[in-house]
């Protein structure tokens, strides 16, 4: 696995100033076009904040299909004037709104860049958290709002970076395809349909850049070269029911709940390994137990003097590679198969898992390219983020086909909860990084 231990760490007052979005110093090692990009990002800062505010104030919870489409229309209005061709890909068959895809052809033979973001948020129309509220105090410039960081901040960075490239003359030759999914927070089923366009785009691309949020650690911007998978499972244990005074004997055995608990305890003690997390998120058992069709609610009925006949559990596990995923599944299946006498147990894995984005050498080199830009901008270099600190994301669907980098969106905190707060200043440094990185990459010949 790639290690960033030996990366140069140059924490200077200048770097800290730029981290807050100050202007690029005259000593930065930038070309004339790159200096123009940085200046354009600074000059259009309030325009970028206004775009983010408009998007945040439009609810686009995953199941608010009309709201997702309205965000797509806002992005269309920004991208068409930059020379992009826009296509809406309807996903009604998967019971989701759809995806917005933007393409622009540049110089033939040069690298093709795939940009990834998402239109939806976790906040549906019935959420009490609906409004953009800006809070500015001296150098601190923040805003609360649903999806302000995840991922409307990321889409704002994309627009700011592309406008900077256009102003500097580097956009015209760039080959760029942008995929903005409408169901990243709650993917449609089957996922093979909802992610088919993105997977195909990954096969066409030479580099993938994901504009989900920037992760910071102790005040330092981090680079993401790996994301773990997300896999859901269901466990059903059954046992012989009868009067509770007969439990544990040779005729009635342990009962369903005890068997379920025993299996989960073995999961807890036997599964742990590096880069794996395992969670039980929902559990119920008794004389009767049912799971709703959405898989998010359980109902149970029973009495204390009846041996429970059924017990259910749902959870997830996250891994760093396909090989680790299969290894964990095999271990879990073996534990479940070794059930106690007079009981039975069945394990199943949900379709639609998010694959892992493994920490490849190619991804590490991309972070190195970004750190060269950080040096030129006078920013602190970014270490590789521990993948245990980041969840699954759409870039994982293309990670096996193309080198990628994650975290080019805004810095934020409290994502997925009321009070989600975006660091508006991060729009500046992220848009500068992205514009220069895309400009440099897009001039290179495809391999």
Textual characterization of the structure:
With 447 residues, the protein is an alpha+beta fold. The chain has two domains: 13-226 and 356-442, Zn peptidases (Aminopeptidase, 3-Layer(aba) Sandwich), CATH 3.40.630.10; 231-349, Alpha-Beta Plaits, CATH 3.30.70.360. The chain contains eleven helices and 19 strands. It has helices at 13-19, 32-43, 45-56, 65-79, 152-168, 191-194, 196-204, 256-270, 322-337, 361-377, 426-442; strands at residues 85-90, 98-104, 112-118, 133-137, 140-144, 175-181, 207-210, 216-217, 220-223, 231-239, 277-286, 288-291, 298-301, 310-318, 343-349, 383-384, 403-406, 412-413, 421-423. It has a six-stranded mixed beta sheet with strand order 1-2-6-3-7-17, with helices on both faces. The chain starts with 12 loop residues before the first helix and ends in a 5-residue tail after the last helix. The relative contact order is 0.20.
